[in-house]
Every structure is written in C-alpha cells, then in structure tokens.
Amino acid sequence: MSQYIAPIRDMQFVMRELAGLDAVAALPGCEEVSADLVDAILEEAGKFAGGVLAPLNWSGDQEGAKWNNGEVTTASGWKEAYNQFAESGWTALACDPQYGGQGLPKLISTAVMEMWKSANMAFSLCPMLTTGAIEALMLRGTDEQKDMYLPKMVSGEWTGTMNLTEPQAGSDLAAVRTRAEPVGDGTYRIFGQKIFITYGEHDLTDNIIHLVLARLPDAPEGVKGISLFVVPKFLLNADGTPGARNDVHCVSIEHKLGIHASPTAVLAFGDHGGAIGTLVGEPNRGLEYMFIMMNEARFAVGMEGLALSERAYQHALQYAKDRIQGTELGVRGGPKVNILHHPDVRRMLMSMRSQTEAMRALAYVVGAATDMAHLHPDDAVRARNQAFVDLMIPVVKGWCTENSVDIASTGVQVHGGMGFIEETGAAQHLRDARITPIYEGTTAIQANDLIGRKIAREGGATIKAVIAEMRAVLAEVGGVQDEAFAAIARSLDSGIKALEEGAEYIVATYGQDIKAAHVGSVPFLRLFGIVAGGWQMARAALIARQRLGEGGGDEVFYRSKIVSARFYADHVLPQAPGLAYTVVNGAAGALALSEEQF
Amino acid sequence: MSQYIAPIRDMQFVMRELAGLDAVAALPGCEEVSADLVDAILEEAGKFAGGVLAPLNWSGDQEGAKWNNGEVTTASGWKEAYNQFAESGWTALACDPQYGGQGLPKLISTAVMEMWKSANMAFSLCPMLTTGAIEALMLRGTDEQKDMYLPKMVSGEWTGTMNLTEPQAGSDLAAVRTRAEPVGDGTYRIFGQKIFITYGEHDLTDNIIHLVLARLPDAPEGVKGISLFVVPKFLLNADGTPGARNDVHCVSIEHKLGIHASPTAVLAFGDHGGAIGTLVGEPNRGLEYMFIMMNEARFAVGMEGLALSERAYQHALQYAKDRIQGTELGVRGGPKVNILHHPDVRRMLMSMRSQTEAMRALAYVVGAATDMAHLHPDDAVRARNQAFVDLMIPVVKGWCTENSVDIASTGVQVHGGMGFIEETGAAQHLRDARITPIYEGTTAIQANDLIGRKIAREGGATIKAVIAEMRAVLAEVGGVQDEAFAAIARSLDSGIKALEEGAEYIVATYGQDIKAAHVGSVPFLRLFGIVAGGWQMARAALIARQRLGEGGGDEVFYRSKIVSARFYADHVLPQAPGLAYTVVNGAAGALALSEEQF
C-alpha cells in the first residue's frame, strides 16, 4: 500500500509563478484570496488527502462497492470518510456562497481537486459528480429547485449524479430514448434506463439528486429534442426532508477494470409507474445545458489524469528507493544499490515526473484562465481567456488522461515483477487510469471538439495566438547561455513548428476533407498537449533560473525544475515532429480499406 | 466473450513469402516439411485454439487458479483441455524425435505457439514452461535424467517449471541464495524459497519437474556460483512412475493483475528435511545454461506480445463492426452506422492491425533464422543466422511486449465505456499483456543485452549488416512508381537513418560512458523494433505488389497488405527520428538529479 504526500511545493510554484495566483486574487469576488490562505488550504487538504482518503484507496479497490437487492453498500471506511469530508467543508469549496459555498476561485479548487483524485480517485468521483449536478441546477434551475436542492448538495448532505448514457446512446446522445411524460401539475413521469451512472446509488447520504436527460412527448428527433430533469431518489416533504421513495432503482452495478469502490449504476426509471421529476430550464435544451457544463467536467477528468500520474510516480519512486537490486553500472564488485541508481529506472521516473509536472503546469494555467474568463471586469480579457480555456479543455482532458495510462503503466514497470502483484498497488493506478480517456467523452470526442469547434470554426485564431505566446517563451529560452536551456530551445523550436504545421493542416483540410482531418485529430491532440506541456516547462525553467539568480533559497527545488524541463525537452518533445507528419500524411492509409477488407 | 479465429492467411503469407518456408524445408532434418503439411498443421492448431482454448480464456480469468493447503486447482475445463492438448500431440511439436517429439522446425512451432497464446495466454504458459525445462534437460541432462523425465514431459504427461527468482534475486540472479547440499549418493538436498514460479503447482498432471537454480556449499559468490538442479514434485520409483512426495511445497499463489488462470507459485524447498534433486550439467554453470536457453524463452514471450495484440485486434474489430453509434461523418441526417465508419476508430484499428502484422513478420523471420542457425549445413550461414537471431531476440521480446500493452489498451479504447466493463473481455487482454514486458527479463534487461552483448561488444557488426539489408529493400521500394510506395520509402528512409544514428551513438558511447548509453537503451530498442517492423512491412508490400501484378488471385489480401504497410509508414515509422534524438541527447537530463533531489 502506498502513501500519498500532496506535492504542495510544486503546486505552490505552479499556482504562484506559472498560473498567476496574484492576478486571480485581484479579481472581483476574490478579495479574500491570499498566498497565506492558499497555503493553509493546501496544507489542510493535503492532510485530509494523505491521512484519510489515501489509506482507503487500496482497501476500497479490493473490497469494491456491493449491490444487494437495489441497495449499494460502499467499502469499509467510506461512509466515515465521506462524513468527515463534508463536515470539513470540502464539498463547498468552489460553490456559490448564496447556497453555503465558499466561492473560492477555480485555481484553488483545481489544486485541491488534484489531491482528492491522487489520494483516492474512486472516492473523489462522488463529490465531482455532485459538483456537476450543482452546476446544472445553478445554471438553469428555478429558484424553487435551487432552494430545494442546492444547500444540501453544497453541504454534502446529499449527492448528485448525471444521467446521460443509455445502452444505445453513448458518444451519440442524439439516440437518447428515456421519456418524460407531463403529469399536469408541473411534474413529469420519467421512464427509461440509464447506464454508467457514477455513484448512481450508494449508502453515503440519505438522498441522491439525479439530473436526467429525457425526451418530452412529441419532442423533435435527435439532439434538439432532449430535455433535462431533476429526479431525486426520495421525493421531498414540504419541509424539504426526504419523503417518499421515488421510482428510480438501481438494477445492478458494473464489474469494472478499475475504480472498484465507485459504484457505476444501471438505473431504471419508472418501472413502477414513473419516476417523478421536474424540468430544468426550457424544454428540448437539455443537451445544450450539458455542453455548457461539459467544460468543467472534462477539465475535472483531465485532472484525474494528472492526479493518477502523480500518485503512480510517488508509488514508483518510493519502491525505487527501497528496492535493492544489482550493483552500480560500471562498478565491478561494488555494493548492492537501490534501483534508482540504474539508468533506465531513472529514465522511467524522470519521464513520469517531468510529464506530471508539465500536466500540472498546463492544467493550472487553464484553471486560472477560467477564473479570468468568469470574473475579470474587462470584456476583452474575459473573452480572450474564455477562448483559451475553450481551446485547451479538450487538450487537458485528452492529453492528461492518455498520458496517465502510459505513466501508470510505467509505474508498474518500475516495480518489475512486484508491479504485477495486486497487493503492491501499482497495478491499481493503471486499472483506475484506464477509464479516464473514455468517460466524459473519449479522446476521439475531445479531438473532434478540438479540431472542429475550437480550431477550424474560427480559422485557427486562438491556437495561432497561443503559438505566438509559445514563440515568445522560446525567444527567451534561446537567449539563455546554458547547455540545458539550449537543449530546451532546440526541442521547443521543432515542437512549435510541428504544432503550427499540424494546425495549418487542420484549418486547411477540415472544410475540404473532414474525414482526413479527423484521422489526424487524436495525433494532433497529442501533439498539442506535448508542445503545450513543453511550453509551460520552458516557462518554469526560466522562472527557476531567475529565482536561482536572485539567491532567495529553495535551490534544490529550482534546480530540479530545470532538470525536469530539460528531460521533457530531450525525451517527450522530440515526439512532436513525428506526430505532425502523421497528422498531415496519415489519412490515406487509414481510410483505404473497405469494410469487407477488415 | 470474444472469439478467436487463427489468422491463417497472414501466417501462411509470412511463413512462405517473408520468412522463407521453402528454405527451412530444405534444411537437413526438415525433409518432411511441405507447404501442405504446414497448412494441415495450421488448420488443426487453429481449430484447437479457437474451439477448445479460446472459450476458456475469459472464464479462466474470472475463476482463476485456486490455492488450498498446498494444492492448486486450475479453473473449470482446464484439465480436460490440457489432456486433449497433450493427447493431440501439441506438446511434442518441436521436441526431439528421440524422446517422442515431432522435431518440426521453429518456424512452424512459432506459428502454432502464436495461436495458443492468442487463444488463451494463461493456458499456453504451462506447455511453454515445460518446453523450457525440456530444453534444459536436453542441453545438459545426463542420459539417465533424460530417460527419466523427457519422454513424459514431451508427451505432456508431466509438466516442467523454471525456478530462478527469489525475493531478493529478480533481475539480479547473482543474489540467488537457495542452497543445495550433497547427500553423498549423487543426489542433493535443496533448501530455499523461489517466487514467481509459473505453474509451479497445479492439478493438470501427476508430476511436475522443477528446474532449480541453487548454490553448492563453498560455491563462489555471484553468478559463477550457481548450479542447476532437477527436482521432481514426486520422486520416481524404479519403474519411472511417481513415488514419494518430494519436499517442495506450494506455500501460496499470487493475486495478480492478469493471467489469473496461470498459477504463479511461491515454492518452499526443504522445509521438511530437504527437497531431493540431481545436478544438471557441471557445478556452478547453472546461470550459463539458463542464458543459453534464454533466447528461446525470450522469443516465446515476445510471441505473447504478438499473440495478445492479434487477439485484442480481433476483439476490437468485431465490436467495431457490431456497434452502431452516430452517423457517417459529413453526412447530415444519414442512417446510424457502425463505428468502423468513424475515422478515429479506423485509425485505432489500423494501428493495431499494421503493428500486429509487422510484429508477426519480424518474429517469424527470426524464427526461420533460428532454424537456419541450428540446421544449415554451411558454417558461415549458420553463424550469420545465429548472429542475426542473437541481435533480434531482445528486440522481438522488448518491442512486441511493450507494443502489446499499448495495443491492448487501444483495444479497450475502441470499445468505449464497454471496454472498462470486465464482462466485455477487452480489459483482460490489457491485464494479461502487462506482464509480458516484465517477465523473462524486463524491457530494460532486454535493452541492456541489446546494446551491450549484441551491439557494442562486436562494434555493431551485425546491426550494420541488417541496416544494409534494410537499405536494399528501401532501394526497391523507392523504385516503385506509386503513391503508397513513395510514402513507405519516405518514412523507411528516415527510419533507417534514425536507426543508424542511434546505433552509431551506442557503439561510440558504450565504452566511454556506459550510463549514458543505458539511458538510451530502451528508446533505442523501441526505435530498432519500429524500423525493423517497417523493413518487414516494406518487404511484404513489395511481394504483395508482385503477386497482384502476376494476377494469381487473392487480391483482397494483397491489396490490404499494401494499405497496412502504408499505414505503418505514415503512423508508426515517423516516431523513429524522435526516438533517435532521445537516444543521442537524453542522458544528461535523465542522470542529473541526485538521489536527494528525488
């Protein structure tokens, strides 16, 4: 079983020096935010994550959630941990103060969220889904709905779920069939089956508030005929307490590769007369509402990629320090050493570490931009940041989650044979990570969004602006007389050129040959992530160099950061030109076979 | 649950047209081999693999092997399948006719082995380990040992195991501590604990023959003090039947990420007075014998990488054909289509397919070279082939197994959310594949072997010869006036240059800065595998083109082969230059941190 120690120093560095915590703190509504407050929050969250959640991660995986006759029992210790989580106010961190939230900026909740997900991803899904449901109600709920549900959801007394998927409607939500029939009193009876509902049933709280996509009678076909409903597990009494059991029942939970402790429910609505729900917002606009919230959810899943990578790195590093095997390379008859001495173990650990740092840097920068996009008084600044966030969300989601599978797999490899033994715990990270490139939109869905809505639709305007920012950083790096910085400049230069080549191809091809553009979409997303990560690591190296020159201390941290940036430049960024080649040239071979030739 | 249909057409193509089945059939001792015989074997093996072994793959995974008080029960159906396997003569395929084997060449047993491993990897490990033990006894056993054990091992009546690893001795076998004390009558008493013993205990046969590494009293420290012993589970009666229980007991079996149906035993030798064994070969040369056999074992694990990739591909392809989701890209309001229509699903499937074909081509070519190295009458031809085989074994092992993890993971991705559900079976391939880059020497161990013993030690002589062969193929491809061949030539050209650059760096650096060379070793192995796969796919494309020109039929197959080669050139080979960059430039960043900075 592995420990988790929140990487607070790196989080502070990224928040303060890369993501602009000061600028976020200067936003309207963020007056209370200060470096001290942030440090206090990180420290408390780190204690909770490492002390309460992390110890339940492996036992929760082994025990799993259990279904029995419609009821779901969470793993041992889960309920106590959840109660403590809610009582400590962690559910309310980023929520609106009007409903009991603390209203802290996204940048801070991002760092805290990373900790929950590193410590115990299966646990973290419960508050994450609740946040999604809270946002849906905040966005389009009536005042009555808000008053009924939000205070108890923000406090963690109740949890929330998102009910989108049906057996025939996964990536294609146009195929949703669940029906909603108006009762006549403002409520609706919901009939249908939803699958893959995270924490769709559990024993942590005495009510669960389901947000459900369904079709009204005579709704148009396809995506424009889907409405959003709120359907509580227990209908509310007049005093707001849970009353009669609603007709939504958990038929089964899934037997999954990972996140065993997170119950993934099949929910049957209306098998006994209809589940009572109320409409959220206007009819037939449910999918539109979902899309507005989707950025948040996709960002959060991207954070899972980062968080699992951090956890897998810590786990592998600890093993590498403890495991004695072989002697130092090139030393005959020397003493046995720990495997951290072996060059390939080093390479693996540096690969895990540098990519994790790059993902954190990029994700937090996007988190801070979200705050700017929401809160900055200047319209132009808000718009610019929103465009950046919109562009980067599919990259954060797709790149960080795909990376996490590779990084967790590398973590298994560092353990050698022990990595394959479940008790070691390294394999759990790989099993848990494997869902992240799938849910909240597969990597292909992210890549479609990236090249279509986020790039081609605006002729590549925002990505061109981002590339210009990258070039400015490159110019600065190129001006430093130092071997490491020269290496960073060399790889970043070819990386940026590759990204630009790929982006130009996407813009030019999307309207002409959409299938060809789509063949390149996932390689392009990966290319974008790699180069964006290199950009942020180059920024980090420049800042580290400046701090070292100032002589303000923390030398070990800043020197390590430059090493990490250099490793990334030598081992990760060099993949960029090959990916650009594939983006530009890969369509013909991918599309040539007829279905019969497969 | 997925079906497995042996890819007999591609196997035939690779054996006949790439690996030189005719030349193998012309070798002394292979007089009976003919294309018809091979076809008959492939067909029978394919029936057995698809009809008997494949249906047990998923149920075996779910049920697993069970330990109870020292006894291990295999999963339901296992024993019947094993009996049928042995009765059908499959255990004896490649064995020496002197002991009941069929003495078929490696090229044929390679194809058959691929089928067992695709159909049911956990099952296939039992005959695979037995083959290893048979080879150890063939190699250095006394006539008495051979007569006692080999006929029943070849017939499958008994199985064999290899006992190397101990808790403190994994990659570093110099640390083996198991002791062997001479009794005085020619036997030894063995004391110690061995871990990770595949099929170290089971209920399939009435004896198990353990090959065990142990130290004699006063043996030198380190690798030169390790001897090899044969230790049967049941001592033999005078008539050769199993008699008294020997003092080797299964203390537990591991709870693993994958290959659940393959019992991985902890074996205690000598807890009750000593396990009786006899010495194999000379004292203190056990590790040397192991290394001689290791090529075979490593090749076999490389085949697991290929085999699991094939299985994952078939599984994902079937799902993609069956799963209806969304409409054709660029067609508004069109009918729902299967996901094979979506460009990124195409890309994923082609990536799985083209890499699997490339691995098969390379592995079978190495298999045929093994036959040439063993059987060709001309010393120079034998030596040349042996050098090629020695060079390529770590590539086949390292590259195919690392690929299989990625490919099985891509298979999960093709399934979307269903891929994460265990009942789908796609996740099992990923879980099973994850052991392959670890056992029989991790990828780092393969890469060390590759750059040290196989390249630097001889100044790169063999790899230079291989690169020259690649260049000859490139020249031929470059001469074809065709868009697909032009694309293949372009990527193969830069791939070969990258490989040469990497090889020159290894040769130049290994003696000067061994740690730097080792940092690049795994990226170099991957680079070598990618380019060697591209080389074989280019050969395949040239042959396919020739056959199409001849008009002899089989057009769909040959046209698909050219598409596959082209896809590989556009999507896989472009990774080569980036890997070469990392090989050459990656050391400084990887080695810069002190242990305290981690």
Molecular structure report:
The structure is a homodimer of 598-residue chains. The mean pLDDT of chain A is 97. The first copy, chain A, is 56% helix and 12% strand. In chain A, strand 8 and strand 9 (242-245) form a beta hairpin. The longest helix of chain A has 37 residues, at 286-322. In chain A, strands 3, 4, 5, 6, 7, 10, 11 and 12 form an eight-stranded mixed β-sheet that branches. A two-stranded antiparallel ribbon of chain A has the order 1-2. Chain A has a two-stranded antiparallel ribbon with strand order 8-9. Chain A is globular. Among the domains of chain A are: 8-19 and 31-64 and 75-139, Butyryl-Coa Dehydrogenase, subunit A, domain 1 (Orthogonal Bundle), CATH 1.10.540; 159-285, Butyryl-CoA Dehydrogenase, subunit A, domain 2 (Beta Barrel), CATH 2.40.110; 443-591. With 598 residues, chain A is α+β, with helices and mostly antiparallel strands. The first copy, chain A, contains 20 helices and 14 strands. The interface between A and B is large, with 99 and 100 residues.
